[in-house]
């Protein structure tokens, strides 16, 4: 028998803790939040138990909760009441996302990083991430004009990190230029570089009352292609992104590991709505240990190379981590 016995280092909780390569910390978790326009209470999102479309009041309370829990940031999404072809609510200073951003910057802007989704899909009546050409296709370069304006509106509202999730070619370059020439050279860009055309965004579509009829396969990456994720990340870094992200997370750990190995800027991952819904649904049926599955899923995403993780469990996990210490 050879003398090697890997079990030695697994024998006690103290040993396992000492040799753990990956650890979770609240500062590396970012909480995505939905804020709806109009009066009334927060509304539950059926396919995401525990997640809501916030009212302005519940939003303020949740922001304070996130800051108290020590999470690293919040990523804001707006749910508007009116939509149009150009997504004009996205650039209106009184549009819901910009209003929510001002609230967040004021309430918790010193305690965590206030981040905003920079994409038109919540604001367009057709639900696409950009504006449409006469033939109905998503017009890449016309969309960049809208993203530039959206970037300025978000920066003026106090966003501290712009999350470019639209997957238009050259979006990072365009937004970087708009910010730099508009007096916001200090505002960084989080590029959703490796963003796949995924079924796991299903519950998100309910969360933002998406109007989308078709799919996003002409701009988001085909799940069959790993190399394109790494290529998009390299392009976004070259265009001036400050952070790149892979999304979804759990089904794309190979892409994440590849991007982490090749990028020279921070790499994040987004554990998306469908990943959340699957674990919640299995746990609700008693088929899976909820807390263990949540922690294992986020640990695996970190282990694969994500330095920070966007997750709807951010605040709850931060609470567990505090308990453990
Ligand atoms: C685009 C955007 C989406 C998500 C984050 N930003 C939807 C999409 O691309 O279809 C999905 C996040 C999730 O599913 O949790 N605004």
Q: Could you explain the architecture of this structure?
A:
Catalyzes an early step in the biosynthesis of tetrapyrroles. Binds two molecules of 5-aminolevulinate per subunit, each at a distinct site, and catalyzes their condensation to form porphobilinogen. The protein is α/β, with parallel strands linked by helices and 325 residues long. The protein has a single domain (22-324), classed as TIM Barrel (Alpha-Beta Barrel). Helices cover 40% and strands 15% of the residues. α4 crosses α5 (171-181) and α7 packs parallel to α8 (253-262). Bound molecules: ligand PBG. Ligand PBG is lined by residues 117, 119, 121, 165, 201, 204, 216, 272-273. The site of ligand PBG has 9 residues, from loops.
Which helices and strands, and how do they pair?
Layout: H1 13-19, E1 29-36, E2 43-44, E3 52-54, H2 56-69, E4 73-79, H3 96-108, E5 113-118, H4 140-157, E6 161-164, H5 171-181, E7 189-195, H6 202-207, H7 227-238, E8 243-247, H8 253-262, E9 267-270, H9 273-284, H10 290-304, E10 308-310, H11 314-324
Parallel strand pairs: 1-3, 1-4, 1-10, 4-5, 5-6, 6-7, 7-8, 8-9, 9-10
Antiparallel strand pairs: 2-3
Helix pairs in contact: 2-3, 4-5, 7-8
Keywords: Heme biosynthesis, Lyase, Porphyrin biosynthesis
Pfam families: ALAD
EC number: 4.2.1.24
Question: Helical percent range?
Answer: 25-40%
- Which spans have pLDDT < 50 for at least 5 consecutive residues? none
* Number of structurally distinct domains: 1
Q: What fold name stands as the CATH topology?
A: TIM Barrel
Average of pLDDT: 97
Q: What is the terminal separation in angstroms?
A: 40 Å
Name the hetero compounds present: ligand PBG
Largest sheet features: 8 strands, parallel, barrel
Structural class: alpha/beta
Rg computed from alpha carbons, rounded to a whole number of angstroms: 20 Å
The helix-strand sequence is: HEEEHEHEHEHEHHEHEHHEH
Query: Helical region count?
Result: 11
Q: State which percent range the strand residues make up.
A: 15-25%
Strand order of the largest sheet: 1-4-5-6-7-8-9-10
Q: Mind telling me the CATH superfamily name? A: Aldolase class I
SS elements, strand count: 10
CATH class: Alpha Beta
